[in-house]
Amino acid sequence: MAKLYFSYSTMNAGKTTLLLQASYNYRERGMRTVLFIAALDDRAGIGKVASRIGLESEAIPFRPEDDLFASLKALKAEGEIACAFVDEAQFLTEDQVWQLARVADRLSIPVMAYGLRTDFRGKLFPGSQTLLAIADELREVRTICHCGRKATMVVRTDSDGKVLHEGAQIEVGGNDKYVSYCRRHWDDVINTGVAK
């Protein structure tokens, strides 16, 4: 039975690398995979999933108005799909998460979604909230804080390294804008306004 999986973490834990490795493992065995990435994440170019260590693959960019169930149903009509992968899953809408659940339940295609759990303010992203609620399996991808503890939180900084407390929930970026911390050090940094 196909399942909906959600692998979540903070920034710089290697989620995209894991996604690309898993897709490669299917393809190496002659199985077809389909990759999706949020259209607003154009750091590697529109329609590209790319990891910080240099791995990359073509992907279908998704927008909030896209019906992912309809897309995968049409792609399945062209040939079997062994697995569907979604990078930057925090940017999915609630409806899109339910569409992906239907892909697993009705099209029998496993769906592996990878994304952030919380934003820089410690709030759940809508896509992540719905995935945490309905995914069949949850997997935490771990990364560490500078102190060696598990990092579960992230702060957003400006170009001078000053911690930002306000702003849009969605602002695409990498190490230039975000730093991962354990909850204790996130709380310290939020209160002092200085990222370490």
TrEMBL record:
Binding site residues for Zn(2+): 145, 147, 182, 185
Subcellular location: Cytoplasm
Key words of the record: ATP-binding, Cytoplasm, DNA synthesis, Kinase, Metal-binding, Nucleotide-binding, Transferase, Zinc
Catalysed reaction, written as an equation: thymidine + ATP = dTMP + ADP + H(+)
EC number(s) on file: 2.7.1.21
Binding site for ATP: 9-16, 87-90
Active site: residue positions: 88
Superkingdom of origin: Bacteria
Gene Ontology MF, one: thymidine kinase activity
Statement: the UniProt record of this protein carries the keyword Iron: no
Family: Belongs to the thymidine kinase family.
PANTHER family given in the database record: THYMIDINE KINASE (PTHR11441), THYMIDINE KINASE, CYTOSOLIC (PTHR11441:SF0)
Quaternary structure, from the entry: Homotetramer.
Protein's recorded name: Thymidine kinase
Organism: Hoeflea algicola
Gene name as annotated: tdk
